[in-house]
UniProtKB/TrEMBL annotation:
Protein's recorded name: Outer membrane protein assembly factor BamD
Gene3D superfamilies linked: Tetratricopeptide repeat domain (1.25.40.10)
Taxonomy of the source species: Bacteria, Pseudomonadati, Chlorobiota, Chlorobiia, Chlorobiales
SUPFAM superfamilies in alphabetical order: TPR-like (SSF48452)
InterPro entries associated with the record: BamD-like, TPR-like_helical_dom_sf, TPR_rpt
Length: 610
């Protein structure tokens, strides 16, 4: 029960004598402090002086409820119910009386009291008032009984559907709850967000029986609504989400296709579904939706975006592959981008296509010349576009990979402060500038540059990693005469890695580990070497990751190393048991890791396929 506001107390005080004011102030102070016994004694005296005060009635029943003094409370409520005449004062008292009987395990009298209450309402507002009181005390069966009475009385089957649905949820009757939520979709102004939230609260992957039962109700309901009605479209949205939850992606696709056709979206609904599937790494479903847009000859803008989506699917699929299979998939994606350029030379999406294509050539295929050529094409044709700023940073990376440091810092400084660059691109350029300063031995300058990167940016994690490395290494120089040499040789290995000289980088890190076994950067070197070896010597990579985890379980790289080791066992060495052990250890020992979510996803996938 809500406490009376200060304004109500002020009005009460203005009507009381000085002595009464003092008693009431003391009683209220005791009540607010939780001293219900003393507060009840004073409020009882005040009530006896002024029995018509609803405020005193309210405070007395609250105090006695807190004290569980039902022998006092029950006769008090009975007297007040007999004395009151208005439903808005009777209903709270009657429901409270039923609750008292329930607390005393006298269910017969509780039901009798509730039955009396059911005969009182005359209008919809009356029913609403009583239902609201019943919800406060969780009398869900009584709510459902009252809802049925109201529907019969007013011949309105949709009446109080919200209240009935919530009651069924609390009672665990999800089929009936779903049927009531469907009624809410038929209102003139349906609150779809609430319906979806409530249904998804019980119909989830973790409760397969409830999920399947809910889907069955919704599937049966499809034929009950006109195909073009708003209710049917909202039902389709709900079905799509539940099909996705149940991993029935064909069912979800069919619903997206229905909405696309019925709303004449010309690919819009399918595109939204495809991008959702791409984000969830459901590549087959994403490809199916993108292809459907292209085949249907939908709106030209969605056809173009679907073709870009198909290339993105190929890139994302390549992430799950290794070796020749991975390279073949990436080359297929590169060909898809090239085909897009030929087919749509004037497309507004071309700057984004060029940027994605250039990044693919640089990061995926290590084709520096092709990446540079595409990035320069983007700058030549669309210099003022946002992707052009990212292309400038990419060209700086390519220059770094080629070992050409001439003018590189100036170029990156310009990109880091360019007024038309997005905050993310400026942060990326700033990090790359700091990295170049690190490689050239300007360690203090690198630290100052890193401090400029905002923590909410994507580059912040890399910046933190480099900053910690520098701070650890520089701190070691105070006590270790060889620490500065170790840092210089470490940066030389990083330079080889930045230039994509993987064999040289791996060899340098191996030599460094033998030469500086007590350096605070050993865990960094172990991780770097293992990551390089992933593609050229997976067995050695696993050994390096395992050594890091054994020697430095609290390292900055520990959770990342554990996740990468799990990926290696899962994809490269085809040892699912060891992969699951890695993911389970990550969840158990690193509960705040950035890799928790992907680890859970991979663990669930492995367990379902084993």
């Amino acid at each position: 029960m809500k406490k009376a506001g200060l304004f109500v107390i002020f009005l009460m005080l203005s009507r009381l004598s000085f002595a009464q004011q003092g008693d009431m102030q003391l009683a209220e102070a005791l009540y607010q402090a939780g001293n219900y016994e003393k507060a009840a004694e004073l409020y009882e005296k005040l009530y006896q002086r002024e029995p018509s005060s609803l405020f005193y009635v309210e405070r007395l029943r609250e105090c006695w409820s807190e004290l569980r003094q039902y022998d006092k409370l029950i006769p008090f409520l009975q007297r007040e119910i007999a004395r009151q005449t208005a439903l808005y004062t009777i209903a709270p008292l009657q429901v409270h009386l039923a609750q008292c009987y329930k607390e005393k395990h006298d269910h017969a009298k509780a039901n009798e009291t509730l039955n009396k209450l059911a005969s009182l309402p005359e209008t919809v507002s009356d029913y609403s008032l009583i239902i609201r009181e019943l919800r406060l005390y969780k009398f869900y069966e009584a709510i459902l009984d009252l809802v049925q009475r109201a529907r019969r009385k007013f011949s309105r089957e949709l009446l109080f559907a919200d209240e009935a649905a919530d009651a069924y949820v609390f009672l665990g009757n999800y089929r009936a709850a779903t049927e009531e939520y469907l009624k809410l979709l038929q209102e003139d102004f349906p609150n779809y967000a609430k319906v979806q939230s409530q249904v998804m609260s019980y119909a989830s992957r973790s409760s397969p029986a409830a999920l399947n039962e809910t889907l069955a109700v919704l599937e049966q309901a499809r034929s009950k609504f006109p195909a073009t009605s708003l209710a049917r479209q909202l039902l389709s949205q709900l079905l799509t989400q539940l099909y996705i939850e149940a991993e029935n992606y064909d069912g979800a696709f069919n619903e997206a296709l229905y909405r696309d056709n019925i709303t004449h979206a010309r690919g819009g609904q399918l595109y939204n579904f495809a991008t959702q599937m791409l984000q969830r790494k459901q590549f087959a479903a994403a490809r199916k939706a993108f292809q459907a847009i292209v085949i249907a000859n939908a709106d030209v803008s969605f056809v173009q975006r679907a073709k870009i989506g198909l290339a993105s699917v190929l890139e994302r699929e390549a992430e799950l592959l290794t070796g020749a299979a991975r390279r073949a998939k990436l080359e297929e994606a590169s060909a898809a981008y090239q085909e897009y350029e030929r087919t749509y030379p004037l497309s507004l999406n071309l700057p984004d296509v060029y940027l994605a294509w250039a990044n693919l050539e640089y990061n995926g295929l290590d084709n520096l010349s092709a990446a540079a050529q595409i990035a320069k094409k983007l700058l030549a044709r669309f210099y003022e576009s946002q992707p052009a700023r990212s292309a400038e940073v990419l060209l700086a990376k390519i220059q770094l990979s080629q070992g050409n440091f001439s003018g590189l810092e100036h170029t990156l400084q310009k990109s880091a402060t360019h007024p038309n660059a997005s905050p993310e691109v400026r942060a990326e350029a700033t990090y790359l500038l700091a990295f170049v300063q690190f490689l050239e031995g300007n360690y203090e300058g690198s630290l100052k540059t890193l401090a400029q990167i905002e923590t909410q940016r994507d580059a912040a994690n890399d910046a933190l990693e480099l900053r910690l490395l520098l701070l650890e290494a520089l701190a070691d120089t105070a006590k270790n005469p060889h620490a500065l040499d170790a840092l210089k040789e470490y940066s030389a290995a990083k330079r080889a890695l930045a230039q994509k000289k993987y064999d040289e980088a791996a060899s340098r890190f191996a030599d460094w580990l033998n030469k500086y076994p007590t350096s605070p950067l050993v865990d960094n070197a172990l991780y770097e070497r293992a990551t390089i070896l992933l593609t050229i010597a997976p067995v050695a990579a696993a050994e390096s990751y395992e050594k890091l985890l054994q020697l430095y379980p609290k390292s900055f790289y520990a959770d990342k190393a554990l996740f990468r080791l799990g990926e290696l066992y899962e994809n490269e060495r085809k040892e699912p048991a060891k992969a699951m052990a890695c993911y389970e250890r990550l969840l158990r020992e690193y509960p705040h890791s950035f890799y928790l979510r992907p680890a859970r996803e991979r663990l669930r996938k492995l367990k379902s396929s084993s």
